[in-house]
Amino acid sequence: MNHDGRKRDSRSFEIIVGLINSISKDQGLDVLDKYINHIYSNPEGGCFKIGDTDTFFLYGDIGSLRMYLKSGLNQLKKSPNLYISSNKISTLSNSKLVWHTDFKISDDVIRSVPVTYIEKVLYYIKNKSDIGKADILIFELNSENINAISVKTYSDKKEVKLSQQSQEVTYDFKPHSVSLVGGVGKDAKAFIENICVDDIVPENTLLSDRQFYKLSLMNKKFAVAKNKNPNEWERLCKEIELDAYRQLEIFRNGFVAKKYAGDNTKELILKRLIGEQFSKSHINYYMTGFNKIINVSKFFDNTSWVNDISETFGEFRPSSNGKLSLVLYCFVGEKKYVLTKIEPSFDGYQPDVSQTKGIVYYFQEGKVIGIPTIWNLINDLYEKNY
């Protein structure tokens, strides 16, 4: 299966997880066939009632997933008890609306949403960023509580990006905080200071007129400067990347402090790796893909697990593209986990690229290291502490 196929297969399993959280405890998994067939026959989207309950399932236009729907159900049937425990929120009532949020909902489908839930659905359609990384939203009747599920699948060997950073961020590591600064920086900004107004025209760049006139003034200046002074620009980009690695060296030294291994791991997880994906205080977040479903909100609210982390360290390793990455690890007892693989990149340095973003730090999963990842760490800590 190609990468697009794996992605669609994962998306189709999100729908399965949504349905698992729609059926009541006294309904068997066989009933899922009925609902999958309904969605398969109505790929344009819809909102339908789950049996004789007061639960509704809402989904958008899943036409691109249609051929993958039944494979997810077949996976489920191979080990149903495992999939139920690892994907179902046990405290849900039988009066709710379960919404798979990943695809556009037509006006006709919106009109079919029960009036009790329509206001919330319209709000989150308009404010998608408010749900973070959630794939499933669940609104319970007569409750202000909102439950959100992020469905994690790990069949894909491709490296997963956890987050990225380009602005300055201060990490409150102990005993001393450390800042990591991205972006174009003052040296790159100085490089374009002397660009004359008359020179800021598309003819002095490698961009099309359409690309050029969409840009901010600063990016127009960069486009001109990169084309007129390519050797100086290349030298400057290399210096800026070297500075990014110097910053990562300081970042590593600040993170690795045995006395504060747990505290510094918590700061990294909450501020950069996972926390920013699930930072909305009005939503109860859950993650699937583990031995049991994980209440992420509880994991963040009660961080007694920091005492289980005994040691941290970091090292620079070459990536498959030949560039160095900073890899950060932690230990729980004798078990070693990779927390993240950080690779800096000067995005937009090429003269034919319109947006000059400067240094972006990509925080990746680190699956390529070949040891347990942050997901395994969270699963193990959660099983031990909750």
Kindly summarize this structure in a few lines:
With 386 residues, the protein is α+β, with helices and mostly antiparallel strands.
What's the topology here?
Blueprint: H1 3-20, H2 31-41, E1 46-49, E2 54-59, H3 69-78, H4 80-87, E3 95-100, H5 107-111, H6 115-126, E4 136-140, E5 146-151, E6 161-165, E7 169-171, E8 178-180, H7 185-191, H8 209-213, H9 217-228, H10 230-255, H11 261-273, E9 283-288, E10 294-295, H12 296-301, E11 309-318, E12 324-332, E13 335-347, E14 358-364, H13 374-385
Parallel strand pairs: 2-3, 5-9
Antiparallel strand pairs: 1-2, 3-4, 4-5, 6-14, 7-8, 9-10, 11-12, 12-13, 13-14
Helix pairs in contact: 1-3, 7-10, 9-10
Q: Would you give an account of this structure?
A:
The chain is an alpha+beta fold. Helix content is about 40%, strand content about 20%. It is built from 13 helices and 14 strands. The strands form 3 sheets. A 7-stranded mixed beta sheet has the order 1-2-3-4-5-9-10. Strands 6-14-13-12-11 form a 5-stranded antiparallel beta sheet. The longest helix has 26 residues, at about 230-255. The protein starts with a helix and ends with a helix.
